[in-house]
Amino acid sequence: MNPLIAGSLTILDLTALTALVAWLWLAFFHGRFWRADELLEDIAPEHLPAGRAPSVTVLIPARDEAATIAAAVRAVLAQEWTAEWRLVLIDDQSSDGTGDLARKVIEEAGAGGRATVLEGTALPSGWSGKLWALEQGRRHPFAARADFLWLTDADIVHGPRQLVRMAALALAEDRAMVSAMVRLHATDFWERLLIPAFVYFFQMLYPFSRVNAGRAAAAAGGSILVERVALERAGGFAAWRDALIDDCALARHLRGAGGRLWLGLSRDSRSLRHYSGLAPLWNMVRRTAYSELRFSPWRLMLALAGLALVFLMSPIALIVGAETGDGPAALAGGFAWGVMSWTWIPNLRHQGVSPLIAPALPLVTLLYMAMTLHSAIDAHLGRKGGWKGRHYGGRSETAAGVGHRGVDR
């Protein structure tokens, strides 16, 4: 008899059953994270309450975004917004003419009286690039008296009703922050394989329903509408000035100051940032993965062990069980793999990717595990993560968290 037997079940049987139980719990008792049904377009009211339209200032930090800035600014200027609004684009010392392109779009739209390009100053010690750019925008007179600030990225094209929906939801439900994760670029092979999983893991880590119920704090940095007074009450951007993943740091501080949050998906807004091949995607994850684990080797080991058990054990049990005639292991492994794949399908559909790749989630997870390990090795060897000529290597507590392109500036 096999020496690895506990009662009538082998170790393979027990681990396969553990993975199955884990997936049943994740599917039915973990905040419905996988359903991708917290949609801005479905939940937000269509119109602002009469007489309550707030003033809004849009802040766009931009560093070397010549390829996307014109489309991003045009989309903001085309918003169906009839109340008072202003736009401040902070040109964060770009070297590719980003600021000039933005000025041209503003001039062509005849929006010079309410839109401006602010030349960013040198990055002070202790600040991350994106947060310093946003802080400069916050200090601009256009933002000083706004009811809300809309923080959006220079590589995102919004649908024309994005702002009105976010504002209506903020007012109707008294939310200090409304954040919408836009559809990410997923057209080539590696993007289709890895980008939907990026969003899926984010949803698993921070189930949107729990954020919206006040039981967790998270945000998606591509589109955040934040009440200006609530932001100042939370300490402003300076309170988490060195955060590598700034959107979730913002969410935690707002929640800590008593603000209510809303986080969901958006169908009508999309990112233009294209990752051609595996290397750019790998580096995007590697830069910040270890910070989510608070730079802790113990957390790293637990995370990798947990991912291996939950995501990798199912196909292993099915394959090994089928080859060795271990029926319980094969059955439990196959069932768990099926549940796992099923939970990924709504996310794949939202991103416009074929659900046929859903069974590849264990392979995708293995790649993300390797990226996380690479991130940890870099941190312990003193290698700093870089983006557009800047390098970050801090281990601040405020770096913990995950978000959309948190260190892209």
Based on the model shown, name its key terms.
two-stranded antiparallel sheet; 8-stranded mixed β-sheet; alpha/beta; 2 domains; single chain; about 45% helix; disordered N terminus; Spore Coat Polysaccharide Biosynthesis Protein SpsA, Chain A; about 400 residues
Summarize the structure in words.
- It contains 16 helices and 12 strands.
- With 409 residues, the chain is of the alpha/beta class.
- It has 2 domains: 5-34 and 289-399, no CATH class; 40-274, Spore Coat Polysaccharide Biosynthesis Protein SpsA, Chain A.
- The strands form 3 sheets. An 8-stranded mixed sheet has the order 5-4-3-6-9-8-10-7, sandwiched between helices. Strands 1-2 form a two-stranded antiparallel ribbon. Strands 11-12 form a two-stranded antiparallel ribbon.
- α12 (278-286) crosses α16 (361-380), α14 packs across α15 and α14 (297-324) runs antiparallel to α16.
- The longest helix has 28 residues, at 297-324.
- The radius of gyration is 22 Å and the shape is globular.
